[in-house]
DNA sequence: TATGAATGAGCGTTCATTCAT
DNA sequence: TATGAATGAACGCTCATTCAT
């Protein structure tokens, strides 16, 4: 039941937004009463918190696996990009909430989640830094800014990409890996 | 007064979100009463609509100028990237609302705004398409997806970039132009 | 278990009030679940009813003993005053509920308790009436009003007296006996 | 309207208790909506706070007048007793709330009211102390405890006395003045 | 004897909106 | 042009109670 509530909440939050989704909406969507919701969650915020935490924890775990298993820094970046893009299909709504609704958490919870999100980004930064030193990436890159740029490319796709449209998730991932690695210019200046 | 209301609304919406900002909050921030608000706006949604429309119209105008005045396609892309990034400083709050709060518009209004946002993106797409044909950009690019990638890099910065931090808006813009044009890889494989 | 539930309820009711204490609070305080509560009590009101009834029945019994065993009417009054005041220490919380929470009983239960409370008071009244006739008390007293006055002095102490403070229960009882018998004036006019 | 709301609230609180009276009950009783209530009061607690404060402030003012205008200490005590008893008629419901519902205020507000209530009692204590020294009252009295006893007699009447019954407020006041001054015993032992 | 899941009614509160002035 | 009183619907949440197990 708790799982059920979470699952339906995620879909609703993604469709209408956290503030715009009422507990009534959630419980109506699975035919139980509000009391039931509060039997499983102490508050609406706690539900959002759980969704956030579960998502980022999962992401961090899988990022860790990539960082440990793959050797070249280029391959690590490729792995992380593909990780995010592939989630579009399997975790779509979860991700869309994750990338939007954080304002509605209490300050202390925002902090907790922010730390984990930063950890994810800092890992990307570290790969870039190491890869620059190893000569795999260009020397004049600012790791921090470029990490944000890469995450911008991938995360932004959660705003518009339709996994069941013309372009498949695989194709998108390949294109973005190529874009990130090579840019768009036809030949070096 | 209408201007005043809009300006303060933008700041509040950006800080707390549209749903989380009450009309009371808005009018309190400039010391008038709710009646006054409804003298100038027919509804809270209409205010949001105006903010959106004004922002995207302005963006489209300036994009148009770039497209018309600059010759090379590379330069056009550079121009558009710099346009978005520079707005971080001058239009920060406006942009942040623009990139987030669209859910709260009625379907017909969403459609209206969406069309204009698409126009902006389609212009980027067109530049890419033309640039590919002209040999300025790599041939194997999918213009649509790459347009989204470029906008991802730039728009995402509205989520985290602090214009008064270590890195200036100019520096960020330069870095992102470089990233978009050249990617991160050190040398072609 | 029933005893356990009652005992903890009494303490909680006294601390927070009947309406402000939830069944959850009660069962949490002894580590069982709500189901258990409803196994032993048909409703929250019934618990309150039992507390009230038990308290007043006990009080009536002990009042009866005093009325039967002691001869002089003055001594009977002294006995009753001491009975109430001494309960402050042994029955504190019980008494405090008794003197406050009756509103939350159903009308028919209120009636039942009220009758017993009245019986207690009427016994005081009777002692006064008999004592006046026997010349032990002043002639111009209205027994009913004076009974209320005496109970006011004693019962009110449940609102403020701290049995473990400077003044002991014994001292308070002695003072109040003296006050009730002699008043405060220094000499007869 | 605010006055109206307060007046009806007082009656309802007295009849059913604070927790047992809903905002809906209050607004229904004068045919407005809940929104109206919250236009005038920031919370239910604030309403209770206002009732308390208004009542105790008024009481303190009138007590002050008595303390200043009347010379003998006996007369001062008589004045205070009559003040409280007479309020039964004019302020009945207000008083009944005052003597019961304080648990529902936030700690800081409880403190504020408690201080004022204590001031009232301490004034009685002071009169007793001065009166003892002046020889108007018996020497062996403990002012603090006796102050509580006197207030017990008077305040308790708010629990049972019906001003429109057999005994008038004046008669009750006279009886209680007599009781407090002389006690009930027929002759000294 | 005790649990735990579920209910449903109600509560205090918020808020966009209306409208007479 | 602006106010302030009022509305009414909705919201997050609580809680006494039920009941199958």
Automatic annotation (TrEMBL), chains A, B, C, D:
<feature type="DNA-binding region" description="H-T-H motif">
    <location>
        <begin position="22"/>
        <end position="41"/>
    </location>
</feature>
<dbReference type="InterPro" id="IPR023772">
    <property type="entry name" value="DNA-bd_HTH_TetR-type_CS"/>
</dbReference>
<dbReference type="InterPro" id="IPR041490">
    <property type="entry name" value="KstR2_TetR_C"/>
</dbReference>
<dbReference type="Pfam" id="PF17932">
    <property type="entry name" value="TetR_C_24"/>
</dbReference>
<protein>
    <submittedName>
        <fullName>TetR/AcrR family transcriptional regulator</fullName>
    </submittedName>
</protein>
<dbReference type="Pfam" id="PF00440">
    <property type="entry name" value="TetR_N"/>
</dbReference>
<keyword id="KW-0238">DNA-binding</keyword>
<dbReference type="InterPro" id="IPR050624">
    <property type="entry name" value="HTH-type_Tx_Regulator"/>
</dbReference>
<feature type="domain" description="HTH tetR-type">
    <location>
        <begin position="1"/>
        <end position="59"/>
    </location>
</feature>
<dbReference type="InterPro" id="IPR001647">
    <property type="entry name" value="HTH_TetR"/>
</dbReference>
<dbReference type="InterPro" id="IPR009057">
    <property type="entry name" value="Homeodomain-like_sf"/>
</dbReference>
<dbReference type="InterPro" id="IPR036271">
    <property type="entry name" value="Tet_transcr_reg_TetR-rel_C_sf"/>
</dbReference>
